[in-house]
Amino acid sequence: MKNKVEIRIKKKDGCEDLPLPCYMSEGASGMDVYADVDGETILDPGEIKLISAGIYMSIPKGYEVQVRPRSGLAIKHGISIVNAPGTIDSDYRGLVGIILINHGKEPFAIKRADRIAQLVVQKVIQANIASVDELDETARAQGGFGHTGV
Known about the structure:
The chain is mostly beta strands. Helix content is 5%, strand content 39%.
């Protein structure tokens, strides 16, 4: 694959045992990221917890890393990400954390080095904002929230 960008990763002290984020198949767009918890932590139904990924990232200017849920955790246990997709900006250098929520009916155990989310690298385009008095007309106009039917 020719379209690659270098993402530099530093592991948090004490996280040398955790794998670096990695793609689990040749065609994967998301890299799995691992839980930095001591032993295990329980996520009760309806509970939200910030789980450390145990890494810091250097993302090149013009890119972001999106944090997305893992579909297997979602379908099997109801585990998702509250702010999906989360965004890691290119100028952020802090510890990467994953905001998990348990939408399931049972407590969910997150163990050290469990794959808890996926990271997707995306190009960023910033907008130039222009204040105007009028907007151009469209056929849709102000129709929204179900205006075309359910």
